[in-house]
Design goal:
Chain A is α/β, with parallel strands linked by helices. Helices cover about 25% and strands about 25% of the residues of chain A. Chain A has two domains: about 5-115, Cobalt-precorrin-4 Transmethylase, domain 1 (3-Layer(aba) Sandwich); about 115-245, 2-Layer Sandwich (Methyltransferase, Cobalt-precorrin-4 Transmethylase, Domain 2), CATH 3.30.950. Chain A has a five-stranded parallel sheet, sandwiched between helices. The first copy, chain A, is globular and about 55 Å long. Chains A and B meet through helix 1, helix 4, strand 5, helix 5 and strand 6 of A and helix 1, helix 4, strand 5, helix 5 and strand 6 of B.
Chain lengths: ~250, ~250
């Protein structure tokens, strides 16, 4: 009998988005690890141990989960959205690379989930319908200059841009600066989608032109999608407009 | 009683990845539309009409589904992976924008799914663990020069790159040319992941260094992830190596 570590994506936060594979991994686990608010989404199960931890403790949480699995426990480490997108799967791999050789032999599974940009895009139409990129605005683990360089490259080459981690208490100015930077490359009419807590009771979504986009609607639960020159808005009477990026690219200019 | 159109993501092709929301939308539909191989994945249901169509008929398929919904039918239009990523949701929005005004009033829902890059990434570790982009190599609907410009921008700025639609019978040379192009920006050791038919009985996955990457393992069912300078490979005895991109970016040089 050996241990197992499943890094499980819960999706955007409603059971409607939890895949059967993720549900099975949660049901099979003897111990759950995770950031407390994500762990709270998983209904308690008799006999299942629960280890909640704080935000910003990714490495310690990953190491604890690996130790549990190495000791013979079937462990599920839960992540919001998809564990492979700015989340726990990379932290686990980091620990494996730098940890004891025996961790490489562990039975490890990453269970994908619906990541925030897919949930937000679905709610508003198809803004990610053509080439796009996903960029974290957190400069905790990379220099701000690199973020600016990536914003320039992505907007300049016509990618739609999904912005993860746009703002937090410790990072209040990064989003405003990013929007400013994007205005150098993109027309003021470019649609910007603010999706917050999609799939949860307090979800909200709005579309504003880049020229008027402000940091106000964004918090830690917000995912932002900035269109390209090709992205279109379809007004609908009495409904949220549709935002989509056509399959055919129009923009070619440098 | 009015019609409804749900554009439903089936995920990578195994029921383990089908979300409950997608399952409910399929069960609720009176008529299903879709590319024949995707439609085949949906178990038949008594009284449910099925309209299979060919590949490359996205616009006609979208219009047929919209007409059905406008006539009062509850329609599900099925898509592999996520309908918002190089798939049917954008085609539906295009038809709505250019179609009769009444289509804007329709009850439209896009139901997200696990897109191929998330499934492939999960199988191999966490290659999308930091900033990344998704790029279609199909030059049916955009000029080849634009694809090259986007490859240059993405690789040059340190994004990991997921390549959709890498090859088809009508597009045999684009992938080889793209890999050549990427070799200008990235070291020969950069890991390249070829994931094929993930979640299906004949799935396969392999990792090769960019310097040796060839177009051979790729076909229409393949999704390719090209690492950045930061992406790491962890060898494991008797197992597929892990590939991951650390949460902290090392690369800053221009």
């Amino acid at each position: 009998m050996t241990g197992r570590l499943a890094v499980v994506g819960l999706g955007p936060g409603d059971a409607r988005y939890l895949t059967p594979e993720a549900g099975a991994a949660l049901a099979d686990a003897q111990a759950l690890y995770g950031y407390a608010p994500y762990l709270k989404r998983v209904p308690p199960r008799p006999g299942q141990a629960r280890h909640a931890s704080d935000n910003r403790e990714e490495r310690a949480r990953a190491a604890a989960a690996l130790k549990g699995a190495a000791a013979g426990t079937r462990v599920a480490l839960v992540s919001g959205g998809d564990p492979g997108v700015f989340a726990m799967a990379a932290a686990v791999c980091e620990e494996i690379e730098h940890g004891p050789e025996s961790w490489r032999a562990l039975d490890l599974a990453v269970v994908p989930g619906i990541t925030a940009m897919l949930a937000v895009a679905a709610r508003i139409g198809a803004p990610l319908g053509h080439d796009f990129c996903a960029l974290s605005l957190s400069d905790n683990l990379k220099p701000w200059e690199l973020i600016e360089r990536r914003l320039d490259a992505a907007a300049g080459a016509g990618f739609v841009i999904a912005l993860y981690n746009p703002v937090s208490r410790a990072r209040p100015w990064q989003l405003g600066k990013s929007l400013e930077r994007l205005r150098r490359h993109l027309p003021a009419v470019t649609p910007v989608v603010f999706g917050r807590a999609i799939g949860r009771p307090d979800e909200s979504i709005s579309v504003v032109p880049l020229g008027e986009a402000d940091t106000a609607p964004a918090d830690m639960a917000t995912l932002i999608i900035v269109g390209s020159r090709d992205t279109r808005v379809i007004p609908r009477a009495g409904k949220t407009p549709l935002v989509y990026t056509p399959r055919a690219a129009v923009e070619v200019s440098a």
